[in-house]
Predict the 3D structure of the following.
Amino acid sequence: MHIIFGFISFWQVPLLKVLRYFKPNVYYLYIDAKTDIKKNEIATKLKKSNIFPLPIEFEKKISTKASYSLCETDPDEIAYKKNIKLVSDTILIKYCNLFSINEKKLKKLRLLIQDFIFFQQMKISGKLGIWSALYPEKKIIYISFKFKCFYNTDIGQNIFKVVLPLDIVKYLTKIIPLAILKLFSVFKIKNNQLQKKKVFNGKDLNELAKKAVAFIPHKGLAYGTKDNILYEKSLYYSDNKDSYFNKYNILHLDYSNFPSPDKNIYWICLNKMKTSNAKFFFQTLFASIKTFYLIRGWQTFLVWLLFIHQYNKYVKYCESISKFKNLKIVLLDYDILCPKTLILALEKNNIKTIATQERFIHTFYSSYATVIVDTYFTNSEYTANLIKKSKYYDVKNLIPVGKYRADYLSLFRKKIVPKEISEARQNGKKILVFLGYHSPKYWYDSYVSLFTNWSSQISLLEDVVRFSKCLENTFIIVRYKNLDWPLKTENCFKDILNKINNCKNIIISENYKESLYSYKLCANADLVIAKHTSIADECLSNEIPVLFYDYAHNTRRVTSDVFNYLSSGLMCCDFEELLEKSKSLLFNSSSKLKNDINKLNKTIYYVKEKQDVKKKILMNLENYLIKNNISI
């Protein structure tokens, strides 16, 4: 018997120790604590009692049918089937009025549910499914004290779920006294009187309310962290100082509680705007009563509760957005991550939403990547056609423009050459860039990670060393998404780092202060070898040779069995295949693989006038303003 806890906190530690005393295998997935210090303390206590996170990292062989596909891509649409099972269209349509949605646009509510359900599958159900496939003869008991685990998808016939939603009890003990206080607060100073005095980032709200265009960033204006910047989010910024889309003219609406990165820009944290909590409480209460009749059983109760929770967020966003009377256009930063409740609030206020496709690969996902937007700039004509038919997208207007970050590769190629590449080229070396994933900071998170765990990172680096010995006339640059994980400090990496330090033709790139440095490396590489990442698609669309490192230390065909849009010739499922194909691309001018790359650019990556994507987008946006008589 295997007992797996979902989220553990301090009070559960004795319970796990007692269960371990009776000799079953006891594991956990996540530690529920507010700080890393407390998480480490819990993990250390459990480790002393031989209680560990679910050790997916250390399994010898994981089936491709029960790995990446369960946690990310969901080709069998398990999450969507759960969605349909929870609520029929007949009942779902009755919630449309709650969110001011036309009944013909029922799909928006279906996608609102989908986001929540698939998040549960990605975090919980998928990993339980992997464990179930590894141990089909074992009885697996999953224990959770969180209500949201009732929304877990059903994967694995040998899994028995025990959900005791103690978090709801904790929530009610807080909300009931708070509700009483809110009732009395109705009779106090009116909220709108307080709001007029509010100042945001040195700007008066009345001044901000005049803005016609807004940008909604996801976690700030840079992708990465302060010390690990990948690129600045400048896609929608115009250099014209008089343009609505100039960085210092456009309104920034933040939903991630990030502070303004620049005191001179217009920046508002929506969640910190002064609003009437009492008003929201009663709106949510009346919505609960109004829709209570839609509960027909346990499944519809779960849907009702989910919608009421989402409705509470929705009305808060509606209230905040309503302050901006002149707002006409909102540009979304990350298409699939922007809260659906915020998008619906924008629609209710008759504000046009616009987004650009962030990842080419998202087109081929089932369940995970969902988008609601008015106008969508897509990566290619091929993706636009697929999105048009997809049940996971609700888009009015599709405009194929290309991959906007791919333009950086054209800009940097042979023009901005990193020093390490320039020096290696002078010595007659071929340049290889290995693109790796990021990795967890702590060992207990690494245990439950599929392809970003520490063992997988060591396996990749071992192959890099082997590679360097087989191709001596090469210079290899290993580049990770970031280095805020303990590559240089944990003992498990010590041996492989010593091997790399002893190889004169390998370096691990550590320049994360310079924005777009990964693009500068790839733009000037003779070959890019990558775990499946967006920059790989961007390189291929610029006809920069790419091979996919499609395996890990305990699995093969990580993505190729799920995504078949790429040529199978570019996918490498073991070291020997990777080495052979690398030699072909590096030293054979008539390589068939180069023809495969060329073919991709005539088919799935194809778009008219491929370059200057940002210019095309801004021109489209400026024309929209002119067409609709929107002027500064």
About this structure: The CA atoms of residues 59 and 554 lie 7 Å apart. Confidence is low (pLDDT under 50) at residues 189-196. The first strand starts at residue 2 and ends at 8.
